[in-house]
Amino acid sequence: MQTGIGEKTCGRPTKSGAPCKARFSGAGFACKLHTTSEEAAQVTAYELGYRHGWERHSEISQSMASANVEHLKRRIADLESQLDKTKRQHTVNGCQAVEVNGYGYLWRGTPALEVGDQVMLPENPVSRIKEGPGSWQGTVTALGTTYEGSLSMILRRVSQAASNS
Ligand SMILES: [Zn+2]
């Protein structure tokens, strides 16, 4: 059987004795007229196998691609945490720096804040929209901050994290 792409000449002997000049493409033995039913069955089997092989191949490359994405995600998370460690400030202007709901704030009270503590925060343009006017309550989400701009002061501690009390 011939496989591969492109046109092939049949070449099977005809009644006149001259080789058949009919062309056929794809997998096969001969032109349609000269292909026996046994050969046709072989071609069908080959094409089925080829298609399944191809599907298997694309499954493998898909799983390889998603494995690569997973690897890159882990690598990025690694680098982010390394960068975070080098950038994270725990004390700014003599105050304890923390993150509340993910944003950097300063605390000058005692005792030091812990993750999970509830605190009152001064109004800012975002809180005004989200929480309404006036001070608003947030939760300490991290110790230290990587924010490099100016940080607002936490007004007071509302309650300590359950693990501390
Ligand atoms: Zn032929």
Largest sheet: 7 strands, mixed
Q: What is the overall pLDDT average?
A: 89
- Terminal CA distance: 81 Å
Beta-strand percentage range: 15-25%
Structural class: alpha+beta
Which spans have pLDDT < 50 for at least 5 consecutive residues?
A: none
Helix content: 25-40%
What compounds sit in this structure? zinc ion
Shape: rod-shaped
Computed Rg: 36 Å
Count the domains: 2
Q: Provide the succession of SSEs.
A: EEHEEEEHEEE
Number of helical elements: 2
Q: Looking at the chains present, what oligomeric state does this protein adopt?
A: single chain
* Strand elements, count: 9
In brief, what are we looking at here?
The protein is α+β, with helices and mostly antiparallel strands and 165 residues long.
What would you note in describing this structure?
The protein is an alpha+beta fold. The chain has 2 domains: 7-85, no CATH class; 91-159, no CATH class. 35% of the residues lie in helices and 22% in strands. It contains 2 helices and 9 strands, in the order ββαββββαβββ. The longest helix has 51 residues, at 37-87. The mean pLDDT is 89. Bound molecules: zinc ion. Residues 10, 12, 20, 22, 30-31, 33-34 line the site of zinc ion (ZN).
